Predict the 3D structure of the following.
Amino acid sequence: MAQYSVTSTKSYMQAMAPMVEALNALRVSELPKPPKVDTELLPQVSVESTINLFADVTTEKLSLVSDCSVKTSSVIKDIRAECARVGASRGQAEHEISGLVQSIVQENQSDEELQSALFDILGFEEFDLISKIVQNRQNLQESAALALLGGSAEKKDPSLLTPEERVEQLLANREKRKNERLAPAVLKKGQYPHVFKKQDVGNVIAITGKLYLLPAGTTRESYPTHEEIVIPYPENISNNYIKESQLVNISELDFLCQGTFNYTTLNKMQSLVYPVAYNTNENMLVCAPTGAGKTDVALLTILHTIGQFVTEAEEGVIDIDYDEFKIVYVAPLKALAAEIVEKYSQKLKWLGIKVRELTGDMQLSRAEIMTTQVIVTTPEKWDVITRKSNGDTDLVAKVKLLIIDEVHLLHEDRGSVIETLVARTLRQVESTQLMIRVVGLSATLPNYMDVADFLGVNRNIGMFYFDQLFRPCPLKQELVGVRGKAGSKTARENLDRVSYDRLLENIRDGVQVMVFVHSRKDTVKTAQTYISMAQKNGELDLFDTSETCDSYDWFKREASGRNRSKDLRELFQHGFGIHHAGMLRSDRNLTEKMFLSGAIKVLCCTATLAWGVNLPAAVVIVKGTQVYDAKQGGFTDLGISDVIQIFGRAGRPQFEKFGTGILCTTSDRLDHYVSLICQQHPIESKLLAKLIDNLNAEISLGTVTTIDEGVQWLGYTYMMVRMRQNPQVYAINWKELEEDPMLLMRRRNMIMDAARRLHLLQMIVFDENSGAFIAKDLGRVASDFYLLHNSIEIFNHTLNAKATEADVLAMISMSSEFDNIKFREDEKEELKKVADNQTPCQIAGEAESNQWKTNILLQAFISQIHLKESSLVSDCNYVAQNAARICRALFLISINRRWGHFLKIMLSLCKSIDRRSWAFDHPLTQFDLSEPIMRNIRSKNPSMETLREYSSAELGDLVHNSGAGDKLYKLIGRFPYIEIDAEIFPITNNVVRMHVYLDPDFVWDDRYHGNAQFFWITVEDSGDSSILHVEKFILRRNQMKTPHELDFMIPLSDPPPAQIVVRALSDTWIGAETVHSVSFQHLIRPTNDTIRTNLLRLQPLPVTALHNREIEKIYDQKFRYFNPMQTMTFHSLYNSNSNVFVGSPTGSGKTVVAELAIWHAFKEFPRSKVVYIAPMKALVRERVDDWRERITKNTNHKLVELTGDSLPEAKDVREASIIITTPEKFDGISRNWQTRKFVQEVSLVIMDEIHLLASDRGPILEMIVSRMNYISAQTKKPIRLLGMSTAVSNAIDMAGWLRVNEGLFNFSLSVRPVPLQMYIDGFPDNLAFCPLMKTMNKPAFMAIKQHSPQKPVLIFVASRRQTRLTALDLIHLCGMELNPRRFLKMDDDELQSVLEKVKDETLRLSLQFGMGLHHAGLVESDRQISHKLFEANKIQILIATSTLAWGVNLPAHLVIIKGTQFFDSKIEDYRDMDLTDILQMMGRAGRPAFDTSGTAIVYTKESKKVFYKHFLNIGFPVESSLHKVLDNHIGAEIASGTIKSRQEAMDFLTWTFLYRRAHNNPTYYGIEDISATGISTYLGGLIDSTIESLKESLCVKFGAKDELLPTPFLQISSFYYLSHKSIRSVLKHISPESTFRDCLRMLCLATEYDELATRHGEELINMEMSQAMRYPAEDIEYEFIWDPHVKAYLLLQAFMSRVDLPIADYAQDTVSVLDQALRILQAFIDVASELGHLKVVLTLIEIMQCLKQRIWNDDNPLLAFPGVDASRIRDTIDLDSMSAYSPGKLHKFAKHLGVTEAGEQTVKSFIRIVTHLPSGAFTVKQDDPESLLVTLEHHNYPLTHEFKAYAPHFPKAQRESWFLILADAGKQELLLIKRASPKMFGKKGKVVSSLELFDDMRGKDVVLMCINDAMKISYEKKLTLM
């Protein structure tokens, strides 16, 4: 579908522009209405006596008549005025349209006919006028009659004329008649402005539209051997439709045309078409004789389209937006396509427009299609492209112009393809509201109006018809019918005789002749027959051209060349030539040249010459009309389109006055061809025969999903047009048509029949009740591979999982694609020979049948056998081409059916056909190796594995050719080989997670491997080779170095198979397959003891059960009774202090459960604290807002939020009763629990969403629980644990780990307050991510209409980009609805006020259709707008990323999860979302207060459907991932002193969840030995490797008796919550001399940045940034430019350089980089201090200042101040001294720095900042040897009471802080470092700190530095210590 862009309205506006101009130019004057004046004179005599005589006579009738006629005349006048207006708007003469209307009204038709005729003339927009005409039909007819009688109906009412006036009028009229010019002939019915043809003379039968009469001057004569009809060429009838002077001059056109056309004027036809073709966007149909110049008309429309995308960059230079448009030219034959490409490429080269051919012979890659603007293709190829839903949709969406050449082929077998193409395009135009212009070109055809209607052409504007007068050279036609039965010997001899006479006759006149025959053999045969006849009669010298042709000798030399064909050489001597598609191209080209230059007189050729090559001749003879048709398997009549095309080659305007076309046929077919040539047969539709296949294509494309849509689709076809015109051909009787004029029932039945047939073949699911169609894989495969449904039927019957190659070949040969391969007697011998000696597979079926032949040809093709018979060669290619397609289809079917053995056979057959080499042949045959080498290899037949192990010398010996050894060695290295390794992790009893590593082990060579190699990875059960999993794996060149990981779930049978086999099969290389078997001998199935708590039918507890008025008040506003789940858990939570685990689905009221536990804690342990841990900041936010509102306002308990975003004062934390935090934060705080008193006061820890244990952050929860248990044991105070999660399937383990005894509640999904309906829909597996998402849009839209037409809908998608694309697609789908804004629930004014505030373009567009977007890439205000509107039900749909499911509680009635995959940058591929995420999203379905049920729909890949069905119901077992990150956590415990030895570490592990799962699911953790000792050994090994790893990072050392001692570095890493690997990395890179650049690099290499988000396609941005930044990305040793550390490095530089970031996402990323940076810098400063590197510490502090001020270290610090102009800063100034300036001086200074130019406000804030700088008086005092007392008294007031530091660009507020550093006098070594913060003394701040000194410092000379961490302010004092 279309992408809307800024320019999309442009094309529409351009199309409208000419019309708007024309309307503006009109001057429509308002005619004053004539008042009715009574003109009767008053009676002057009293004539009562007279009146009495007439007493009984009334005058009513008279007055009625006069009134009526006055009224009528005014109405008629109105109608005429209106008609004149319409005429003027179209630029026609004033009375033309009213004349047309008048003539139509005159004909006595029914009202319906009249209406449709009027619509044709006036167009639909003039609806009112038409109804007026129909109503006043009677009056119009009468007025017309009057006008003919000469009574002027307009002047005066005739009933009021006096006798004198009547006489006067008669006389006047007589005078007027004498010298009046004749009126123009009244237009006949059905004349349209652009139809240029003579009026049909003679009779016409109305129904069929057939004619009786032959053209004037036709003669018919009879002879003994033949009879002939001669239709003379129209002599000297000049073409009056347009004068020579009116031709369009190229020089007057715009530059596009001038540059393209290289002649002076357009010809007559082109000049007539030009205004519509080039100046409008109307659909067109141009019917004109061959050779009239239609290709250039198409070129005009192409230029018009290009013109819409041209912008003038500067004078004379244009800029074309190449990527925005595509033009598709559909030509019926490949030969024609090639000719068009050549012609257009030449003409459009100067514009830089690329024209390429896309046919069966010329495939284009995706990239080539992208760079091509004009694509020339065949109908079938374009059909294949548009019917695939994957990937090419962006190509189809950009098509702006579709040109269909030779539309008259509609009535041939391929016509159905054109019908579906046009129908598809027109429907697309309607649904997407895109402008796609359709232009049809055709030869002259009788029912051109039907074709025009079908192409959506306006008959009055775009329909052009040109008759024979427009032929460049008039045509004389002779039709000869020879006596004798068709195909008999007499007929053949007569035919030769007669055609020879005709030939001779014309040769004598000295012209060249082309003879068309109908098979390749016939060309030579005919030429030889003619030569022998000429020899007999002695007329050979007539054909000799050696005298007449100048370059005869050159041609003679050429023709007798060695490599020329025998026939060409022999025939050339006699002046004959042959031409057919079976010849070599060089021979064909030579023949064409010879004919053009006159070196041969007679050319015998096949019809391809007429279509593909533009070679005219004076005379063309068609010899015989019997054509062998392979499809019919016999002879049929030559099609009329071929005859027209061949006759079109007759006559060369520059040489002859007229051309002659001679058609020789048998006398019984003569009349048939006469009627055809006089165009007396309307063309009919051929769609019915192909309806089933075409319907299947539309269904699998998703454009037809119900019967009604199918009926609507048929309404766009040509068949529909013709069924109404000529119903009998389609077996419809008139009565049916009369009762159902739109044939709705007929169409419905057609669709139903076709659908039933498809349903029967399992290609679709057809639900007869609802009338819905659902595509199935089989149908999709058939559609994508263009298989006929008959073939599918055959496959359904014959497919078999155990089939062999021979069976498959037999099955393929039976498919209906090969029905037209007929067995001919003359090929029998050769086929038999091949069958007996050279076919490796046995041939099934009876001998000498069609299947037999097909099978042999296919095997011959693969074996590369050289066939002699030319017909066999072409059949063989045809078979191979189609078989390749069918094999691919069968391969996909085998995947769908999960047949492993069959899949291998199919894939190997596909490869055999592609490579033309059998699977059992040696794989090395795929390289070009010489025959002797291959012979040696084949004879020994070593496997590829063996060959890989040989050295080059050994390989040389193997093939007895030492020279070839190296080459072979190289080639074997290039043979694709993938090493496989696999691990299995049992999840439940019958599901195993499998992790496969693929390591490519070959040398990439672009010659052999291109850009990518495809492999199929299959997992099979070794027993019955059924496939458990299959996926396509794409290996790209840039990923060769790294092993690839695949992760998937596979089901297990019971009992499990002994082993499963993983295979990697190359998609293109024969023999490239690797097998790896995974044994299940040691598989231990996990024990997931779970317990399901059933809801008891309890009386719901009232709120009063709390027995506490204060708390009851909180709940009273919301509810009176607890829900059943809360009622069941109430006692355990509120009345006991045991640990509790509650598993229940999202939205079931778990929050209240947590609150019950809190109230209990406050009741039992009044001074204690409650900690609530939620896994995401968003959830913390939500909880904080909720509880602030409800708990803190209503009770005296305080609440504090502890996350990375908010750091409260220590005092606040001490006073708070409830602490809400994230796992990381709480882990960091509780690590040092001995020193933090409040941690020891905790009595209740609530962990929400505890099932996230399995995620990356799970281990932290495990550590918290273990630590709490430990603290409780140490302090002897109980700490209660409450775990809450969705239902899990191993609840017992969870409970055991949380030490729950009786409080275990694990409810099933059904306890939701609002019941949930869940649907899971599968989509094709073989689609890439974006096309897959696209395919889901229409089903999503239908689901909304079905499940939630009025209620709110949430759609979750995988990425920000997808929110945008989904919204645009849904908008398109809305466009097809009656009410496109059905989802919008507010009025326009309100909408306008909202739109003014919206920043994002897409959001602005989608809000107008009632859809909102919500993702992290939007600015906060936009997100709020979407959120609020959706909440208020002003918009019905919200499209969001999964983050919304967690953070914001926005329920909806219907939730659609569109796709379950997302892009993971770590594996650079798409991977499945966690089940927890999906459950969370589903939890948003159903709004407790509004709905009685909710609906959740999950869209996923077909293969994942079962998996989700299983786990979304029973819940997923939770596993631990602590073993992956054990080292940091154990390190923290060693640092805090909890663990002092290895044994204590082992004991610590027993507290964890990992310990429990290792016993219950050992295989998951890779434990082979499952005895208790085995598991202990495994856990011991974990501890040992952890301690080793910590030792390597210098974080742990061993003391006496193997005691574990933490080093200072471990303390640092634990304190700052840093990974020990970051410490390891900094210790590796740090040196006493590290520079600013080194330190910045160290910062970015920290392990904390491993997780920085990197998205798809960011590598380019990073490369550009790297070039623009101060330090390049290469500073960081990385493998790829999209490495997260590289990104961090670039983002920090960009931040300090203050440059704008390329995309919004980078701004978010910068915030997350800065979030971590300060903590990491702090830790690094401590590490550097520990090492005593003073210089490094100062540099790191400098980085900290730079980040806070957003400047570089060498920038002037003033830059950071508001409004300062960088160019004005002259000299560096000390901030300390600046802070002491007086206000006057400051003002002056501000002016000097250019601050004043930024405005008054900026100056104020500049002065405010400077006057609050933290400068002060620095003093140092030493009273005793042990310590130094340092004070810094501030001169200025602080910015705020919290001592906020000035850091305006830093995402988080910073507090003022100082580093106190004691160093030796030479400033070489750092002795001491300490942080200090100011406190309030009076109104100003003061830093007071005491430094403890060590003994070895006494008496030293030292320097004490005091450095601010946010600004460049520092002080230092030298002193000598006591």
